[in-house]
Design brief:
binds pyridoxal-5'-phosphate, Aspartate Aminotransferase, domain 2, alpha/beta, single chain, eight-stranded mixed beta sheet, 17 helices
């Protein structure tokens, strides 16, 4: 505060006029000084701050030039009304609402990042910038960094059974971005698209946002239950997570995979395969992706959100040859590609084997996290929760026992004060078993253990499973 004014002068700003201008400007834009509010005279403010009056006069003149304050003859100086900008209180509160879930045990969307890897990434980024050729500073190929596309193609061939040319790989700013790009390019508003139910809420939001008619399709022990398309228009696309269905964790059976590919071929429909966490497989060899079985109708999507971290905003698509040109053209009129040097830096991590090493290490950590949660939850809950220990991925499920009142789940979550999504919160129509979706990655083991114990004890206290 300066006198009665809610302003903060930044001593780091050496020029006094700029210092006063910046402080008043921020207070007005942040809504701390309201429209029409009177400001002290330049003399009074200069005295309060203890600076030369000329500096304040000059700052007031600049603010008048900005349209943020007005001088009224004989009356004084006031904050302008209406303001040329809207106070940012709304923006600030909207920002809070949109932030990711806090990093508390079981929150989804967090990963383990070791400082050594971040240093490697930082060095690789600086190197990419410093050694940039004029071509790399220009617009470039809408598919993204050639180096990263090469690395991704080699990685997919080795680990996911996908034979693809780097020319078919497109780097995108996250799975949602890739999904939106493809669906906007290939489908028209009002077209029908199937999604798994329960399923990935963010994919559903993306599809709805572009005006598609989203049809929830059930999931059983073999994965998505392919509907007989008797009623209405046939679907033009399907969004699936066949390797590790989100959130149930089911792996799509080979029989279903073949049937889904067959459906897509006959219906001339597109399959969007979201292969979001297959790098983290705890038992047995990695499964071949759907795109590895038949690629002409499958758009494959993988992400660095789980292998590195979400704020990187890097993911990749493998596009069928038939749609390549259309998607590239759409991309060129969109964001073109994610920041180039981050892509090149990740390519360097991959080429040096540093990403593979990081995945090996974090996989071991996540396996330990999974076992810790399963043990603590089981010990505390007894028969009150049905815990599914996953063979893949960064989340696990704890269901209420068959026959329990599903409304109990929200009460248990509240009383246990844990950060968990319920299965029903990922459902559109599905009325299957209610349960807790527990994120196990990026949280310290002791926090996971405590939260699991709290959740398990609370479930037992609520008598889940007792009829
Ligand atoms: C099912 C599923 N797909 C994809 C992602 C990753 O999305 P993105 O690449 O946009 O960060 C997640 C992240 O939590 C997910 O749960």
């Amino acid at each position: 505060m300066v006198g009665d004014l809610p302003i903060r002068l930044d001593p780091g700003i050496r020029n006094l006029t700029t210092r006063v201008h910046a402080a008043l400007r921020a207070a007005i834009i942040d809504g701390l000084l309201a429209a029409n509010q009177a400001l002290p005279s330049s003399r009074a403010l200069a005295e309060q701050i203890g600076i030369n009056r000329n500096a304040v006069v000059a700052a007031y003149e600049q603010l008048q030039g900005d349209g943020l304050i007005v001088a009224r003859q004989g009356a004084g100086t006031f904050v302008a009304a209406p303001l040329p900008v809207s106070p940012s209180q709304n923006a600030a509160s909207a920002g809070r609402d949109h932030a990711a879930a806090p990093r508390r045990a079981f929150a989804l969307g967090h990963t383990e990042t070791d400082p050594g890897l971040l240093r490697d990434l930082s060095r690789a980024t600086s190197r990419a910038i410093i050694t940039a050729t004029p071509e790399k500073l220009a617009y470039g190929d809408p598919r993204g960094s050639a180096a990263l596309r090469r690395e991704v193609a080699a990685f997919l061939a080795a680990s996911r059974g996908i034979r693809c040319d780097p020319a078919c790989v497109m780097i995108v700013a996250g799975t949602q971005s890739g999904l939106r790009l493809c669906m906007e390019t290939l489908l028209a508003p009002g077209d029908r698209v199937w999604i798994e139910d329960p399923g990935y809420y963010a994919a559903r939001a993306t599809l709805e946002a572009i005006g598609l008619q989203v049809e929830p399709v059930g999931v059983d022990q073999e994965g998505l239950i392919i509907p007989d398309h008797g009623d209405g228009a046939p679907a033009k696309a399907v969004y699936v997570t066949p390797s590790h269905q989100f959130p149930t964790g089911v792996t799509m059976s080979m029989r279903r995979r073949v049937a889904l590919l067959d459906w897509a071929r006959k219906a001339n429909a597109w399959i969007f395969e979201d292969d979001y966490d297959s790098e983290f497989r705890y038992a047995g060899p990695p499964l071949t992706a759907l795109a590895g079985l038949g690629s002409e109708r499958v758009i494959y999507s993988g992400t660095f959100t789980k292998t590195l971290f979400p704020s990187l905003r890097l993911a990749y698509l493998v596009l069928p040859a038939a749609i390549m040109d259309r998607v590239i053209a759409a991309r060129a009129s969109h964001d073109r590609f994610p920041p180039r040097f981050m892509q090149d830096a990740v390519a360097e991590l991959m080429a040096k084997g540093l990403l593979a090493r990081h995945i090996r290490r974090t996989k071991a950590q996540y396996r330990k996290a999974r076992d810790t949660v399963a043990q603590a939850l089981g010990a505390a809950a007894g028969a009150a929760l049905d815990i599914i220990v996953p063979t893949q991925g960064l989340h696990m499920l704890a269901y209420l026992p068959e026959g329990s009142d599903p409304r109990m789940a929200a009460a248990i979550r509240h009383d246990a004060a844990v950060e968990t999504r319920l299965v029903s919160e990922t459902s559109m129509k599905a009325q299957g078993r209610e349960g807790f979706i527990l994120g196990i990655s990026g949280h310290p083991l002791d926090e996971l253990r405590d939260a699991a114990t709290r959740l398990g004890r609370t479930a037992a206290r609520h008598g889940a499973g007792e009829r």
